[in-house]
Amino acid sequence: MPLNRLVSSDDVLPAPDVQPTTFSVDVLGRYVCNTLGEALTNPDFDAIVIGSGMYGGYFASKLFRQSIDAGHPLRVLVLEAGPFLLPEHGQNLPEVGIFDPSNAPFDTRDDQNQNLKNALVWGIGWRSQTRFPGTAYCVGGKSLFWGGWCPRLTDKDLEQWPAEVREYLNGKPKVGADAKTRASIYEAVEYEVGARPTDDFIFDPVAGPGAPAGEIGLNRALHKLVSDAIKAGATNDPLKDVLPPPIAVQTQSFISGLFAPDKYSSVPAMISAIRSGDNGGGDGQKKFFLVPNTHVRRLVCPPVPKDGATPDSYRVHGIEVISQGVRQTIPVKPTCMVVLALGAIESTRLALESFPTAPGRRDQELMGRNLMAHLRFDFGFQLDRKKLSDRMKAELGHPLAERLQSASLHVQGFGDHGRFHYQVYSASRPGSGGEEIYRMIPDPDVATKLEDMESKDRIAVIFRACGEMKGGDAPVGAPGTNWIDLAGEGDRDQLFDHARAWVHYENPQDAPIWKEMHTAAVKLAKAMGAVEFPGGGDKFENLGRAGVGTTWHDAGTLRMGDDPKRSVTDVNGRFHHIANAACVDQALFPTVGSANPVLTGTCLARKVCEELVARYTSQPDLAPADVTREESDGFVFLLKGGNAAKWKANDTGRVNRPNPRLAGDTILEVAAGAGTALAADASPFDLAVLFFDDPAPFRDFVLRLQWKAFFQDGGDITANSGVFLRAPAPPQKLTDDNFYKRAIEIQIDETGYDFAARRFRSPLHRTGAIYEIAPAHQWAAKVPSTDGTDGLWNDYEITASGDRVTVRLNGKLVSDGNVTGKGPSGAIGFQYHTGKVQFRNVRVKRLPAPA
After folding, report:
1. Which of 524, 544, 564 corresponds to the end of one domain?
2. How far apart are CA 595 and CA 434, in angstroms?
3. What is the pLDDT of residue 596?
């Protein structure tokens, strides 16, 4: 019989306030989750993650753990639109039957098509002319349901990705407990999710008592069949590498006495972080909060009065949510990073509605372009078991084993029309082709019965083909392209009062890669000895294509890149135009390649995490040995000895004090703007410069220095300064003699304020930019400092050689530009503009003129 509805009341339960339902006691929900009110007891968060799925859950727990290891634990808030459902992957719970609805995609334009069973967790928040099964609105999201195939992107797949990201994925880890043991980030994350070792889940069992020695298992036989066919050229070249199956199931612990985590989801690590973050000091002291049933409507970037205009802010100030039916706004402090992890479609919707790159100009909007997924089909056939056994005996000296178990492997292909791969599954049970691979069998009697079901005549094989879909730079709405935009007012989400996304996939049925994948599959199957193709699958006209909306591989619409004119986010997942917003899901992908995206997406989430933790780590002061080494390399320290007295302000009436030197002449400070002694008639172009007064001008050189920016009164980030290169001797008023037109400026300003356009968010005017010449490619500065604390120092290394200037910020190449038309030589100086910035360890090495 149907159950009565459980009604929430205003009665507050005494501790322990764990609530019973008709069937259970909600221990996990209460010990893992919090209400929004509990979380906002202290709203001072360092990161707010929107979405607790595959990437959001991984990112949040990794951020918390790494920040502890770095010595400055960050406070993390995770917001999830759905409820707490399961503590681990659904397939770790035997025979429960919790699956995704991939076989029943819905018409997204008709809300009635979402049946009640799936509406409990699965829902579709967007509109499209393509059918979708929806997404999982619950803690853990699709990570509770995913299949687990977890390959790397190939070097070919990554060719169009930023060089720094390619090097990160394939380079050795530099942070974390696995930095000493793993050869690459890819390998490190493979171990984290259970895709390595590859032989602990799919393997040929050891022969039991009485079994003939040396019998060939199905995995070995399958690998030999496929490898031999490819080496013999049976597929005419498209197929290349044959690899072990990269399935994210870890059945073996790496440490004695600890349980293995089984099939991966993001929830167990998140639970561990949440419990570790509870120090017993009450909600105000907790470090990690997970708040379910909290739907994010919009990120608030309000107008900010500036120079007579009111441009939209450079940062997120608040998050509008509906939590447990109540609408409210979560405050966001200036240094708090807001991280989107809702999946490509919903992350793009939220970003478009909150801070588009080109408001009101659809043809120029960068968000929503480059939408990609995968083209997929299943191709099945059967092998004659006796013939295969005879072949193994002839070629390897032993027949097939009497009792066979499931086998799998991964095959990569590089065709004329794109890259693809096959997930290969095989079993000797009638009608089977891999479904048992993802099934927990807790009862040994059931496992034995499955073995007894083996066919003595046939072996089933399935190729799950996964082909690349191409994206591109075409504007949103361009004919023949895939894109995401905001749907019209008639499709507005009335429940949560925000625009929906419109997801447009062009009909992919005529894509030439379908034919290429199918042709290679048929040739490979025949070379392996296929004797039957159920349903006539060897004929292209019988190919059963999966709907493009059913893969959950949507990607690319907030793509990362080095060029702010072509990409939405930088190489660390941070939005080019918003100082405190980032993304950690598949929307970041520049190309989708042929591989399932989870492994690479998780690696990207780890990269974003590492960079955010690094924001809170100061660059160390130079030790005496460092100074000696650099001096021997030709660097002259400009705050050492008599050089310290050569720093002069061009107009002492416009600076906060005549002597800018601090801490025993080892630190220079420039401070200007509100609350200082600027002249009453000062304008932005009449500000001052602190310059090194040396008779020999600087032409070609390497300049290294450390700098530290401070919060303004009121707590926001508005410190604005710059490093002048090849500047003319500054006049009393910098507007004289075209000082700004001749000098090169390396900017320090996290707001990216463009004075001429009266707007924030400009990469050409942001920290690291060669001011108005070359944009900053990525964010790399430390969190601003507070008076009375040690603060956080940044490193600049600036090279001027001929007409080229390159800028490295904290070891990252952030800008590189041609400065033709600027002064060929001149002074080095620091700008007095707004707020307070300090400098130390300023040293320069003159270079010979370039050839």
Report:
1. 544
2. 19
3. 93
Residue 552 exposure: Cα atoms within 13 Å on the Cβ side: 27
SS3 164: helix
Residues 558 and 527 in one domain: no
Omega of the bond leading into 197 within 30 degrees of 0 (cis): yes
* Distance in angstroms (rounded) separating the CA atoms of residues 445 and 468: 42
In angstroms, the CA 116 to CA 131 distance is: 18
Whether residues 237 and 359 share a domain: the answer is no
Q: 107 with 131: CB under 8 angstroms?
A: yes
Confirm if 49 and 273 have CB atoms less than 8 A apart: no
* Residues 539 and 559 occupy one common structural domain: no
Give the residue from 391, 367, 528, 392 showing the smallest Cα distance to 462.
528
The single residue listed with the structure tokens 């979708």 is: 132
Torsion sign, CA atoms 136, 137, 140, 141: positive
pLDDT of residue 783: 95
657 in the Ramachandran plot: left (φ > 0), alpha (ψ -120 to 50) or beta? beta
pLDDT at 677: 36
What is the rounded distance in angstroms from the CA atom of residue 834 to the CA atom of residue 832?
7
**Contact assessment for residue 801 and residue 816, using Cβ atoms and an 8 Å cutoff:** no
Is the residue at 695 inside a domain? yes
Distance of CA 549 to the CA centre of its chain: 22
Domain contains 176: no
Based on the fold, state whether residues 774 and 661 are members of the same structural domain.
yes
| Three-class DSSP category at 67 | helix
Give every residue of the chain whose pLDDT is below 70, as ranges: 1, 97, 102-104, 110-119, 206-212, 429-454, 652-659, 661-664, 672-686, 713-714, 732
Q: Is residue 473 part of a domain?
A: no
342: domain CATH number? 3.50.50.60
Which range marks the domain in which residue 763 is found?
624-846
754 domain residue, yes or no: yes
| pLDDT per residue as tens digits for the range 562-620 | 999 999 999 999 999 999 999 999 999 999 998 999 999 999 999 999 999 999 999 99
Computed on alpha carbons and rounded to an integer, the radius of gyration of the chain in Å comes to 30
pLDDT of res. 559: 98
Q: Report the pLDDT value the prediction gives residue 211, as an integer from 0 to 100.
A: 61
Question: 529 and 422 share a domain?
Answer: yes
Can you tell me whether residue 797 is helix, strand or coil?
Answer: strand
Q: How many domains does the chain have?
A: 3
Length of the chain: 851
* Shared-domain flag, residues 459 and 559: no
| Predicted pLDDT of residue 682 | 45
